[in-house]
Each structure stands twice: as structure tokens, then as C-alpha cells.
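Encode chain A's predicted structure.
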Amino acid sequence: MAGAQPRTSCISLLKQLEILPAPCQYILALMYFTIYNQEIFHTNSSIHNINTGNHHLRPTANLSCFQRSTFYVGKKIFNRIPPGVTILKNDKAKFKAALRKYFTNNPFTL
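Encoded structure for chain A:
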């Protein structure tokens, strides 16, 4: 497809072809779920009226089975995304485009 040699690193080829590695695709799907279901997640500002400057989603869980769930992992990853992307969370189309562009420019693998 790209005319590369058999032993060429796939990271540069994926970036060139704008294909996201599997971990990035998983995170992208989690973020789509989080954005399309914002009403089920609580933020710090929805809990109290004190302006702490931190309006991110609050992950709170004591059970390990919940900590492995889509809800908990989605919140934690959302809080790690750069603010330039998370500020677009109310405009779903722009958020999706910005997040995909971020992962295309900054791919990572496990």
C-alpha cells in the first residue's frame, strides 16, 4: 500500500496514511462515548458552586469492577486530553475532528 520495505517501522507509515494505532482508536471510541453521553457524567461545578478552576469530570469509584468500566476509564482519559481539545466538548463535530487530529499528530502505542 505504501511501498515500504518489510522491516520498516509502522509508526511513521501509520502517521503518513493517517491511520490511528489500536490504542488511539480505543481512546477515540471512549471519548466519543463520553461526549455523546455527557448528561450521565458529573463535573466538579455540577456538584458544588465553588470555583476551583478544575471543571473536569470527576471519577469516583471504590470497586475495581467499576474502575475497569467504560464510565470510569472514559472520565480518566478525558481528564488527560489537552485543554485545547476538551474545550470543544459541546461541539461534537469539532471535538471529534480536533481529537482525531491530535492523535494523528501524536500517536502512541503500548
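The helical segments are 10-17, 22-36, 44-47, 64-67, 70-80, 83-86, 92-105.
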